């Protein structure tokens, strides 16, 4: 089999969630990396060409996030891809220059990926992906579609989606976490700062990517959180983000979901 | 008096990560031992440092830092000494990927099994009332749930089986990774090695069914190399009880 071109390619699912964060970070960096959209909800992320080392794709904690392929190696996890772009340019302003401020940004991003992302993914998938997008598939077709997925816990989240399973405790937990994160953003902005870490950073992109779609599902979480809502609007109209949002080829980009990170199973 | 104080438990898992990172960098630091099994971490003196009641925490001057992996990254960037992250952006990406995989996917499974087999039984002699009082002092709701499960042996067979599956799978992935490169994620000793060593150093004793010179030759080679590092030896000499006993027993095999 002929080796694929070694030029890097970013495979993404369209402008929402982790794909949005990474596309916007790439735009901020100015790096000329080719982007190709795949339909995450049809499992296309698991049949990408030109990959010799797929470990980071197969076992990404993030679930169905974007994949950057460089020299046959699949790179995943949106925050780390954004850091990669920043560092590959020698620093394009996506990470603070000071070690302590970088610690603060990493802590913020860790909270966003560990608490907000699983909650947003759970609610978003139930609202917009469950059944209606997979409805056309027979159980046999679905089984064939998910058969290339190597991670059995990710495959299990796909199965729950196809089965229409809804865990009331997980829904409640996710709603609470979305509201807590909106409050966290509101508190962070209380001193009048423009961006979450003061200067614009990956924290703004990652948080926006998971929190913005929740405005359309969890209205109460954003009530009387004016600073949070104004910040979401500010991020959405930043040139890099606005350009990426315009990539949405059909429908509302806020509804693009596929199985994401699992809700913490321990501790 | 050093300007860095680390609040930590034993050189193991999360506490061991910043201990070893500080030793590798050659940073002078004050050790403040927090006994997790007597719940020092939920006493007012410690909650004044870290209101979340999680360990470790580090003071650097006026700054308070929490979360073991994030502390390590800060230590590497804020102090001189040998670099614990390579310069190449792709290697740096790979190191972060492995640390997240350990912290959020594999580590919790190691932890669940450890809490079920060691932490819970270590507190079993306390009365139900005492255990309930200890749980009531925990600030974070998810930590309250975790401690309750450990103290009252509430782990289901299904979740323990899933943790065992993940441990087996994770060890196989580490073995594969160390067949590609000299160290985890790059050809340079890095934060990824410090992170993963802290959760795997005891496997030759704790899981001889999974790890051994013949079963996992790459992991065995890496363990032997890391065990012999002077900073690793100094860090585990600070430990006590089963943590240091295990370290010494395995070190004798590697000597």
Describe the structure.
The complex is a heterodimer of chains A (267) and B (255). With 267 residues, chain A is mainly alpha-helical. Chain A contains ten helices and four strands, in the order βαβαββαααααααα. In chain A, helix 4 (99-129) runs parallel beside helix 8. In chain B, strand 3 and strand 4 form a beta hairpin. In chain B, helix 1 packs across helix 8, helix 4 (89-122) packs across helix 6 and helix 4 packs parallel to helix 8 (191-200). Chain A binds chain B through residues 53, 55-56, 59, 61, 70, 73, 75-77, 79-81, 83-84, 87-88, 99-100, 102-103, 106-107, 110, 114, 152-153, 261, 264-267, and chain B through 63, 65-67, 70-71, 73-74, 77-78, 89-90, 92-94, 96-97, 100-101, 104-105, 108-109, 111-112, 142-143, 146, 159, 162-163, 165, 173, 176-177, 180.
Features:
heterodimer; A: 267 residues; mainly alpha; four-stranded mixed sheet; 10 helices; 4 strands; 48% helix; 6% strand; globular; B: 255 residues; alpha+beta; 60% helix; 7% strand
In short:
With 267 residues, chain A is mainly α. Helices cover 48% and strands 6% of the residues of chain A.
């Amino acid at each position: 089999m002929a080796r694929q071109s070694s030029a890097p390619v970013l495979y993404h699912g369209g402008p929402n969630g982790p794909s949005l964060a990474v596309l916007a970070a790439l735009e901020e960096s100015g790096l000329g990396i080719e982007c190709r959209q795949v339909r995450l909800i049809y499992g296309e992320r698991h049949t990408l060409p030109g990959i010799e080392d797929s470990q980071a794709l197969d076992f990404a904690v993030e679930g169905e996030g974007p994949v950057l392929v460089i020299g046959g190696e699949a790179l995943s996890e949106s925050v780390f891809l954004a850091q990669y772009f920043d560092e590959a340019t020698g620093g394009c302003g996506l990470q603070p220059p000071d070690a302590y401020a970088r610690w603060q940004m990493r802590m913020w991003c860790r909270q966003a990926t560990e608490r907000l992302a699983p909650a947003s993914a759970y609610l978003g998938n139930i609202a917009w992906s469950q059944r209606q997008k997979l409805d056309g598939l027979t159980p046999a077709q679905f089984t064939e579609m998910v058969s290339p997925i190597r991670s059995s816990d990710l495959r299990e989240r796909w199965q729950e989606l196809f089965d229409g399973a809804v865990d009331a405790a997980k829904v409640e937990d996710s709603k609470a976490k979305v509201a807590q994160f909106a409050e966290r953003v509101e508190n962070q902005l209380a001193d009048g700062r423009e961006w979450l870490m003061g200067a614009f950073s990956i924290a703004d992109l990652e948080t926006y990517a998971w929190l913005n779609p929740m405005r359309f599902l969890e209205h109460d979480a954003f009530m009387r959180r004016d600073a949070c809502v104004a910040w979401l609007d500010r991020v959405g109209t930043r040139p890099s983000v606005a350009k990426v949002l315009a990539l949405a080829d059909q429908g509302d980009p806020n509804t693009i979901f596929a199985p994401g990170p699992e809700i913490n199973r321990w501790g | 008096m050093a300007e860095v104080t680390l609040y930590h438990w034993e050189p193991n898992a999360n506490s061991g990560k910043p201990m070893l990172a500080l030793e590798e960098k050659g940073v002078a630091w004050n050790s403040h031992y927090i006994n997790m099994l007597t719940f020092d971490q939920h006493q007012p003196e410690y909650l004044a440092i870290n209101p979340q009641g999680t360990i470790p925490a580090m003071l650097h001057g006026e700054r308070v830092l929490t979360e073991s992996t994030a502390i390590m990254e800060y230590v590497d960037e804020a102090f001189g000494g040998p670099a614990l992250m390579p310069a190449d952006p792709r290697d740096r990406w790979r190191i972060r990927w492995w640390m997240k995989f350990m912290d959020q996917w594999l580590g919790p499974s190691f932890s669940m099994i450890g809490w079920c087999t060691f932490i819970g039984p270590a507190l079993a002699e306390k009365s139900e009332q005492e255990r309930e009082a200890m749980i009531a002092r925990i600030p974070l709701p998810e930590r309250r749930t975790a401690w309750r499960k450990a103290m009252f042996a509430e782990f289901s067979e299904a979740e323990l089986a899933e943790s065992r599956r993940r441990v087996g799978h994770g060890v196989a992935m580490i073995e594969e990774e160390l067949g590609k490169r000299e160290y985890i994620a790059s050809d340079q000793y890095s934060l990824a090695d410090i992170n993963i060593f802290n959760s795997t150093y005891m496997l030759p004793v704790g899981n001889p069914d999974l790890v051994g010179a013949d079963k996992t030759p790459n992991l065995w080679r890496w363990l032997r190399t890391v065990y012999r590092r002077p900073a690793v030896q100094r860090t585990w000499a600070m430990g006590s009880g089963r943590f240091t006993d295990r370290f010494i027993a395995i070190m004798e095999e590697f000597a």
